[in-house]
Each structure stands twice: as C-alpha cells, then as structure tokens.
Amino acid sequence: MPGPIESDTPRLRLRQWRDDDLTPFAALNADPEVMGHFPAPLQRHESDALARRCQALIAERGWGFWAAELKESGAFIGFVGLHTPLAELPFAPCVEVGWRLARAYWGRGLATEAARAALRVGFETLEVQEIVSFTTLGNLRSRAVMERIGMRRHADEDFAHPALPPDSPLRAHCLYRLERDRWLQRPG
User: Fold this and answer.
1) Which of 120, 6, 4 is nearest to 61 (CA)?
2) Cα 38 to the center of its chain, rounded Å
3) pLDDT in tens, 136-163
4) From residue 110, how far is each of 80, 102, 117, 138 by CA, in Å?
5) Which of 7, 11, 23, 120 has the most CB atoms around its CB within 10 Å?
6) Whole-number Å distance between alpha carbons of 187 and 177
7) How far apart are CA 5 and CA 40, in angstroms?
8) How far apart are alpha carbons 51 and 107 in whole angstroms?
9) What CATH code would you report for 7-184?
C-alpha cells in the first residue's frame, strides 16, 4: 500500500502523527472544556494511547484521524479525519468524519476547513459512498460544523450511544449524514 494520505487546506496540513504531537494532544485531552461532551478528560497515558492508535490506523490503511497543524507556524492543533467506529452503533458499519481541536483554535473555522478536506479524501480519493458524524445532542459547536460542511441531521435516527451508561447525560446522540453523490454535486 502507498504511504499515508495527507491533505492540505489553505491554513492547515492534515498529516501522520509525530512524537512531538503527544504533549499538546495530552493538554487538549486534559482540558475539561474540550472534553465537555465526552465522559471525562483523558489522563496522559490514555491520550498517548489514542494518538498511537490513530497513528497505527493511518500507517495500516493510509487514512484516519490525522494530526492537524497550522501551516503558518507548524503548531499542532488537534485531530481531524475519518474513522470507522468500533462501537456497535445502530447505523454501523460506517465511516465517520470527526475532529477535536485545542480550545485556543476554536471559533476560527479551522474544524470546518479541515473537515471539508477529510470529506474530499473520503469521497474523491477513497470513494466512500456515505460519511456520517454524530455527537451528543448538546454539542452545538460540533453540530454547527456538521451543518456547515453540508451534512444533514436525521432526527429519526437519534440514538443512545451504546458505549455510555444508561444514566449518562451524554448518552443521547444525534446523527448527521452526507452522501457521496450530494458531495460531488455541490457548487464550487
């Protein structure tokens, strides 16, 4: 298989993970605000393990949750990319687009810019027929990104995330979908 797929946008590079990404990744995963829609912030060993899993999946298949860096400075800002969830979701098997950025980079359109690049890889390079995204009902920031990148919510497919306990306030999730045909027909 050829090397990892990498992608550039006007402001970002989506690339394979490096060892020097681990410290800033651990810092964003320890931030309670960044992790507000997840069960808990991650400990350093959990964060490192997640980065290593992302790195291994990219090495194995060429794509995944890429490390995202600002082209201007080379600063690591988080991850953005494509993933095949392991949880037994009601709409699986699927490919999802997802992101997690350090709080200092919120509100600049970077998640939207990078997510569009990930969709381009998924639909145009990998020829995936549909890409989904999902989050807790209250994660309005991520839901806004989903809508900006052209995804549509399917409220009739809201679901209880099976990896979360029944009494978790984060268990209720919403599903967004985008089909390849609709992506290819978009203007510009």
Assistant:
1) 4
2) 13
3) 999 999 999 999 999 999 889 999 999 9
4) 10, 11, 11, 21
5) 7
6) 18
7) 31
8) 24
9) 3.40.630.30
